[in-house]
Amino acid sequence: MLNSLQDFVFYAPRLRINKRILALCMGNHELYMRRRKPDTIEVQQMKAQAREEKHHKQMERAQLENEKKKREIAEKEKERIEREKNELMEKLKQIEEQTQRAQKELEEQTRRALELEQERRRAKEEAERLERDRQAAEEAKAALAQQAADQMKTQEQLAAELAEFTAKIALLEEAKRKKEDEATEWQHKALSAQEDLEKTREELKTAMTSPPAPEHDEQDETADAGSAELPSDGVTNHRSEEERITEAQKNERVKKQLQALSSELAEARDDTKKTQNDMLHAENVRAGRDKYKTLRQIRQGNTKQRIDEV
To answer: Domain ranges in the chain?
Structure first.
């Protein structure tokens, strides 16, 4: 209280009221003095303990809050990792499916390339055989022409046989040309299949090197790439045996083809436009005479003539 202030004086008509007012003032003064008096050691210790407990509780609350945030962050990180794991597993599954499709396509293209190579070789061998037949026919034609020059043979029969050989040579040349065209076509197809095969190999290699990829994929790719090579050595080793086995069949097939072609030409020929050579050729066919019999007869005639001269 300030000392400069004057006393507050008032009067009450009753004594009991004065005593109550005095007690109220005294209590107020005591509380005022108590608030300004320093705390005792026990009170200070109690306040310090209360502050420590409060601080400890705040620290525990902050630690719990921090742990809660860390737990939430960990859960979010776990969910993110799980989501990325699922995405990677899906990508790996897609890569495996692409690898399987590429492997199947690679095997199919390898098989097609092998078939095309075999067809090309067969066409080439057929063309070579037709070339040999053509050369044989040319030699027979030359031999017949030489025999005709040496022997006293009728001009009509010689012309008919020469025309027959010329027609056969033309047919053989046409067949050879078709076989050569067929061989060229098969070769182009084989080259196209080889290009597709190389392209598929590159796609397979690209798919196999995409992350993430398991360790055994590289080994599978190496084994698959090795198995994709054309087994041309095995085909080459069996070629001579196949030629020996099928040589007679090929000759018989060509003979039948020539007979069928002759039949078609005979049906398409106009009988009203037959020449003397055509009639002579038909007569030789009905009589069973051909170039080989003619050559044998010429040789027999030469031999008999030499015997008679001796």
So the answer is: 276-309
